[in-house]
Specification:
Elements (H helix, E strand, L loop, with lengths): L2 H24 L3 H9 L6 E7 L5 E8 L17 H13 L3 E10 L1 E3 H17 L4 E10 L1 H4 L6 E4 L4 E3 L11 H7 L23 H25 L4 H7 L4 E3 H7 L4 E2 L2 H11 L6 E7 L5 H8 L8 H8 L5 E3 L2
Parallel strand pairs: 2-3, 2-10, 3-5, 5-6, 5-7, 6-9
Antiparallel strand pairs: 1-10, 4-11, 7-8
Amino acid sequence: MNKKRWISIAVIVVLLVIYVQTDVISGGTNMGKLEKSLLPSEPSFTTGTYQEGTGKTIALINVNGTIQSGTDSLSSTDTYNHQIFLQEIEDAFTNPEIQAVVLAVDSPGGGVYESDEIYQKLISLKERYPKPLVVSMGTLAASGGYFISMPADEILATRDTLTGSIGVIMSTYNYSELAKKLGVEEIVFKSGKNKDIMNPMREATEEEKQIIQGIIDEYYGYFVDAVAKGRKMDRQAVIKVADGRVYTAMQAKSLGLIDQIGDLDGAIAEAAKMINESDPTVIQYQNETLFNLNRLFSMVSPQLDFLGIKQNLQDSAAPTVMYLYR
């Protein structure tokens, strides 16, 4: 985190302490006012100069962290914000000054829904605004991180990149034996026999396993189709390499999963070549949201959920279908 962000956080903390102290005197009205005034109604972004040039403009957009909605928190190390990212790619393609887009992906993947939302949006934007799209893979561009790369015209990965992991996963826990030892019994009232499917308090039935596997197989088919289309590969050839494993960059290149071994500068040079530009100006999209202020409020207000623990427990109780390397 840079110096400016630390200063911003310090200022907000000081203001928050002042408001909390005066909140007692004012009868509890200041916290509500502060939240309304400081919390942005819409996620936002800015652009900065990544590379100065005299020619056409190329946009650089980063995907860092797990591709999932609602993951931003005070304690999170991910910098990915799904809604902001969707706004950034929309802006990059609709902005007439931007001639090409470079997507820097460093992600283990994420939710099936979010990954497919990005994929579909990129496909749609490229159809309406035929700008070159080049993907630069970082340390890890796996599963959903690979999936969202499929609309690219060219994919580059460094020799140390791990990519691929073409597959789908959905998991839960089985707490039944632990519950017996602790003397805990769950009582469930349900409208149908499969209403509590993947209930962690009991063994899954064979029928339930078939139901879940059917869901996995369907989403897996979407992934395979996206790779076959994006990489111009035969579907059966994709299935042969799509067993969930990750590949090194050299392995991925030999299998046709990426195009070149190269770094971010190489990806930018490739995008410049596609627009016939030798000295491009590269702008980089930057996330303005420092952190979720709701998390900060929760730390100082006992009425609010401390660090989102309650919400996290609720989220973990709902199994999610993931394009995720794990």
